[in-house]
């Protein structure tokens, strides 16, 4: 029996690269990939991917205006949900970016990097947004990490970072000026600040693990 993974298209961000990576990861795995803004398709899917890129307020507004927000909230309560980049930030309570409320699915907040004037170990200045590869420490064991070595490199592009209210919801951490949470997990939700779709073979492995994860 073929299962379906819905990649939510609400008009924002990194939809094409995420959907192409999910399609690649799903090859031969018994999944159809639906790129959709139809709430009924999201509700009928076996699992859901929520991408996001750009300003948090814009993403939250477009998610609501697209009519798919309630279906995403229902999915977050009932089936595996993977958030990517701003799609992770949206899961938390609040973002400093334009004083924007999130979906409130994971207790925590999103803050801006404050690294002005600070130097990295090599003497160069910290730049915001952070753009590039960083090692990810797996803060807790999780099926979505299966087969991915701890301290693996993943690709980041962001000016804001997450702080979870409860340490148990922090699934991955990295360092840029300070240690911060870059992957969150709770019940049937897993989400990453980094871009698996831009992280070569290990990023595809993460998407494939999500497809087979049974919370």
UniProtKB/TrEMBL annotation:
A Pfam family this chain is assigned to: GATase
EC number: 4.3.2.10, 3.5.1.2
Gene Ontology MF, one: lyase activity
Keyword Ligase recorded: no
Positions of the Glutamine amidotransferase domain: 17-210
Highest taxon above the source species: Bacteria
Catalytically driven reaction(s): 5-[(5-phospho-1-deoxy-D-ribulos-1-ylimino)methylamino]-1-(5-phospho-beta-D-ribosyl)imidazole-4-carboxamide + L-glutamine = D-erythro-1-(imidazol-4-yl)glycerol 3-phosphate + 5-amino-1-(5-phospho-beta-D-ribosyl)imidazole-4-carboxamide + L-glutamate + H(+); L-glutamine + H2O = L-glutamate + NH4(+)
Keywords associated with the record: Amino-acid biosynthesis, Cytoplasm, Glutamine amidotransferase, Histidine biosynthesis, Hydrolase, Lyase
Protein name: Imidazole glycerol phosphate synthase subunit HisH
Protein species of origin: Pelomonas parva
